[in-house]
Design brief:
Elements: E1 19-21, E2 31-41, E3 48-58, E4 62-64, H1 66-74, H2 83-98, E5 102-112, E6 115-124
Antiparallel strand pairs: 1-4, 2-3, 3-5, 5-6
Length: 137
C-alpha cells in the first residue's frame, strides 16, 4: 500500500481547459455547472475574495471537462484581480476552449467592505438564436 506524504497535492492548478465531443449536437440543451468555492485575491489589499460561479452554456461541438475546469478555477487562488476582470477572463477562456452556441457566467462574490458584487458576462455565437422559452402550467 502506498501513500503520499501530507502536504503534497496529487494535482496542481492548471489553466489548461480540456474538452470532449458534445454527445448531442443535434439539439440545443443547457449545461449548468456550479462552482461554490472560487477564490482569488483582492488586487488592492491582497486579502482573499470568495465567490460562487454559475456557468450555463449551450454547447455546439465541444463540452468542458469538469476536472479540468476544477483545476482551471483553482489556478486563480493566488491571483489578484478585480471581480469584473476575472469574470470576463474566465468566460473568454471557456468560449475559446469550447466555442459554444451560448455561454453565461455569473460570479456572485461574497461581501467585501459591506458590498456584495455579482458580475454576469455572456457570449452568443454568430447567427445563434435562442429558442422561445416554454411556459408550463
Amino acid at each position: 500500500m502506498s501513500s503520499k506524504p501530507l502536504g503534497q497535492n496529487p494535482t496542481k492548478p492548471s489553466r489548461d481547459l480540456e474538452v470532449f465531443p458534445n454527445p448531442q449536437t443535434s439539439r440545443d440543451y443547457t449545461i449548468r455547472i456550479t462552482v461554490p468555492e472560487f477564490t482569488c485575491l483582492c488586487p488592492k489589499t491582497g486579502q482573499p475574495d470568495f465567490a460562487e460561479l454559475l456557468l450555463e452554456y449551450i454547447p455546439d461541438q465541444l463540452c468542458v471537462e469538469l476536472k479540468a475546469l476544477k483545476m482551471y478555477v483553482w489556478s486563480y487562488r493566488d491571483e489578484g484581480t478585480f471581480h469584473e476582470d476575472i469574470t470576463n477572463k474566465i468566460l473568454d477562456d471557456l468560449v475559446t476552449a469550447t466555442a459554444p452556441r451560448f455561454m453565461r457566467l455569473t460570479a456572485d462574490f461574497n461581501v467585501r467592505g459591506g458590498i456584495y458584487t455579482s458580475v454576469v458576462a455572456e457570449h452568443r455565437a454568430d447567427g445563434w438564436v435562442a429558442a422561445d422559452q416554454v411556459k408550463l402550467p
